[in-house]
Structure formats: structure tokens, C-alpha cells
């Protein structure tokens, strides 16, 4: 039994899913993996099921009926992790934008450095560590994070980061059923609520590499949610 679970939400990731699973399992630290698949029509879940015969004790699959947003997929995974007794829970993308080799660094930051949350950060130490993005997308993401820090006052540089390790107690304290946002703002809301509960958040510098295979899930609606969502969070002061 591993003490750490890596949650990977998927929708149409057949090009990446087998490779990312094997890359996670190749790390020196033994991680378990939970795939939360939103009924991918490309057969992503079928690939995972075939791999389960090889990794029967460490690879798990939860299939949902529809495409309901990355936030609800992670919340589904968080609840599954708590129910099954994991002490450390890591969010990770399926497309190799997050390097599996950095998993141990995030894990060790929570186990050895007294952090309650470790964030794989693209923008810490006054650097922009992003590969294969055009300049417009780099600027949009960077200044979005600056905007979030200005509005919410949260002391995190990469507030929209989706490569995050949580200690179990953080997920048990945050009221997951009251998380309001499903897109980029979900990542902001999770960090904001944790900070408001006075949990220790530490950023770990990573290099973020844009996907090579598959299609981006970014949409104008997700960006709009993030922009206006942070204002709502700041005004409401979540949690009380």
C-alpha cells in the first residue's frame, strides 16, 4: 500500500494515457494512480482497463457519465482518496505538461519540509518556466496569476497551477462539496480556501511543457470563470 495517490483526470487522452501511467510507475517512489475518466469517446478508459491487469494493486479507474469539468473530476478523486486512506494526494495532467520526475519533489516537500500543500510552480523566483507556449499565452497565464495575487492577497505565485500535492488533512478540512468552480478557478479556490484555513503552502519550481499529443481543454468560458471567480472569492472571503 502506497501512502500517496496521483489523480489524473482524463477526457480523450488515448495518445498519452499509457505512457503517463508507465512514467509515474517508473519513479523510485511507489505511487498509486487513480484515473478519473469523463466518458472519453476515444477509448481512454479501455486502455486503462487493459493496463490494470499489469498494475492490479496500484492502478485504479473511476468512470463518470459525462464531461463535467476538471474541478468536479478532482473532487471525485479527492473523496475516493480519503475513503481509501491515502495520506498524500497529488493532482497531475495526463499530457506530460507535468513531468513525472517532479512527483517525488512535490511529495518530499510535504513529507520533509513541513508543507501542507506543495505547488509545482511555473512562476516562482521571478522566472517563467514554460516550454512550447507562444508569447501571448505565456503573458496571459503569468499576468492572470499576478491578477489573482493582487485581488485575493494569497501569497502564491502560480495560483492556477494544476500540479499540486495535498496532505490528507487539507482535503478533510476544506468542504469539498462547497467548492464552486470547475475550471481554472477551481485551482485558485482550492489554494485560497487552504490559505484561509492557515495551511502552509510551499511552491516548488518546475518546468511546464505544453502538450505534444492530444487537444488542449482550455476554453474562453474557463478563462472567464477564473477572471470573475476570484473577485467573488475575495468579496466572500471564503471560508468565513
Automatic annotation (TrEMBL):
What InterPro entries does this protein's entry cite? DPM1-like (IPR039528), Glyco_trans_2-like (IPR001173), Nucleotide-diphossugar_trans (IPR029044)
What protein am I looking at?
Answer: Dolichyl-phosphate beta-D-mannosyltransferase
* Keyword terms: Glycosyltransferase, Transferase
**Which SUPFAM superfamilies does this one have?**
Nucleotide-diphospho-sugar transferases
Q: Name one GO molecular function term.
A: dolichyl-phosphate beta-D-mannosyltransferase activity
| Membrane-spanning residues | none
Pfam families attached here?
A: Glycos_transf_2
Record's Gene3D superfamilies?
Answer: Spore Coat Polysaccharide Biosynthesis Protein SpsA, Chain A
Family to which this protein belongs: Belongs to the glycosyltransferase 2 family.
Q: Which residues form the Glycosyltransferase 2-like domain?
A: 6-174
Q: Which GO terms describe its cellular component?
A: membrane
**UniProt keyword Chaperone present:** no
Organism lineage: Bacteria, Pseudomonadati, Bacteroidota, Flavobacteriia, Flavobacteriales
Q: What's a GO biological-process term for it?
A: glycolipid biosynthetic process
Amino acid at each position: 500500500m502506497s501512502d500517496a495517490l496521483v489523480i489524473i483526470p482524463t477526457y480523450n487522452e488515448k495518445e498519452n494515457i499509457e505512457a503517463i501511467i508507465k512514467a509515474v510507475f517508473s519513479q523510485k517512489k511507489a505511487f498509486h494512480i487513480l484515473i478519473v475518466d469523463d466518458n472519453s469517446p476515444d477509448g481512454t478508459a479501455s486502455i486503462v482497463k487493459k493496463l490494470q491487469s499489469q498494475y492490479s494493486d496500484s492502478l485504479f479507474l473511476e468512470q463518470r457519465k459525462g464531461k463535467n469539468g476538471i474541478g468536479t473530476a478532482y473532487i471525485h478523486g479527492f473523496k475516493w482518496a480519503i475513503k481509501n486512506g491515502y495520506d498524500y494526494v497529488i493532482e497531475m495532467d495526463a499530457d506530460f505538461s507535468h513531468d513525472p520526475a517532479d512527483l517525488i519533489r512535490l511529495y518530499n516537500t510535504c513529507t520533509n519540509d513541513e508543507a501542507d500543500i506543495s505547488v509545482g510552480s511555473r512562476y516562482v523566483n521571478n522566472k517563467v518556466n514554460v516550454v512550447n507556449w507562444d508569447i501571448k499565452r505565456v503573458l496571459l497565464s503569468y499576468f492572470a496569476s499576478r491578477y489573482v495575487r493582487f485581488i485575493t492577497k494569497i501569497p502564491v505565485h502560480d495560483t492556477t497551477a494544476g500540479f499540486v500535492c495535498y496532505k490528507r488533512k487539507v482535503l478533510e478540512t476544506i468542504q469539498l462539496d462547497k467548492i464552486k468552480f470547475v475550471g481554472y478557478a477551481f485551482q485558485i479556490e482550492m489554494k485560497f480556501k487552504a490559505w484561509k484555513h492557515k495551511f502552509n503552502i510551499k511552491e516548488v519550481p518546475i518546468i511546464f511543457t505544453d502538450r505534444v499529443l492530444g487537444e488542449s481543454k482550455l476554453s474562453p468560458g474557463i478563462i472567464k470563470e477564473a477572471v470573475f471567480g476570484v473577485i467573488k472569492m475575495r468579496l466572500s472571503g471564503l471560508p468565513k
